[in-house]
TrEMBL record:
Pfam families referenced in this protein's UniProt entry, alphabetically: PBP
UniProt lineage: Eukaryota, Fungi, Dikarya, Ascomycota, Saccharomycotina
UniProt xrefs under InterPro entries: PEBP, PEBP-like_sf, PEBP_euk, Phosphatidylethanolamine-bd_CS
Family: Belongs to the phosphatidylethanolamine-binding protein family.
Coiled-coil stretches noted in the UniProt entry, renumbered to this chain: none
Name recorded for this polypeptide: Tfs1 protein
GO process terms (BP): regulation of proteolysis; regulation of Ras protein signal transduction
Sample GO molecular function, one term: peptidase inhibitor activity
Xref: Gene3D superfamilies: PEBP-like
Length: 210
């Protein structure tokens, strides 16, 4: 039953990513291998397209990944030696219809190790906290800053599994992920380093002046 529930949730995640056009606008469609739980504080969780206030999202949130360990085939592809990359990107910069700064890169953390959560050892799920304080950030977190009168922006979190430890050169800028071409970003960057997307979540935020 638990495995079935996770499959159902995975389908719901895909449906949300399609509905809000993150598939295929930001990344090609993939099947989530777990749940990415994101919290900016009490009652400030990221819930696949809910709206949060800009002022409440200026510090790096707490993030947890939950895998279904009832799926032996899935579990066998993960180990304590794995590295992961987390990114936050805005495909609506400066607006949904004007892509000159899109995507705007808000955060990149590479070579993340998963730390098993308390009480998870005897569970039917593997819950792991993303240790975002260990080691330097590839690109420090910058909270949402949507310009006035540009409507709602989608702030997208994607977790990737790495094939090995990576040390890419710094981005040349946050707009367009330094690639210099509008409407480009995480797809091109992750492909370059052979990253496999395994989980996603997102929220909306907008400037109070509309």
């Amino acid at each position: 039953m638990l495995a079935h529930n996770l499959v159902t949730i995975s389908s719901s995640i895909v449906d949300a990513l399609k509905k809000h056009e993150l598939f295929p606008e930001v990344l090609d469609e993939f099947t989530p291998q777990g749940l990415l739980t994101i919290s900016y504080g009490k009652d400030l969780d990221v819930l696949l397209g809910n709206q949060l206030k800009v002022k409440d999202t200026q510090t790096l949130p707490k993030i947890q990944l939950t895998l279904d360990i009832g799926d032996d085939e899935l579990v066998s592809t993960f180990s304590a030696l794995d590295y992961f990359t987390l990114v936050v990107t805005d495909p609506d910069a400066p607006s949904r219809t004007d892509k000159k700064w899109s995507e705007y890169c808000h955060y990149i953390k590479t070579n993340i190790k998963l730390t098993q959560s308390d009480g998870a050892k005897n569970s039917d799920f593997l819950s792991a906290q993303l240790d975002l304080n260990e080691g330097p950030d590839y690109l420090k977190y910058e909270g949402p800053g949507p310009p006035p009168k540009t409507g709602k922006h989608r702030y997208c979190f994607f977790l990737f599994k790495q094939k090995a430890e990576i040390n890419p050169p710094p981005l040349t800028g946050r707009p367009n992920w330094g690639l210099g071409k509008p409407a480009t970003g995480v797809r091109e960057w992750s492909t370059k380093y052979g990253l496999e997307p395994i989980a996603a979540n997102f929220f909306y935020a907008q400037n109070e002046t509309q």
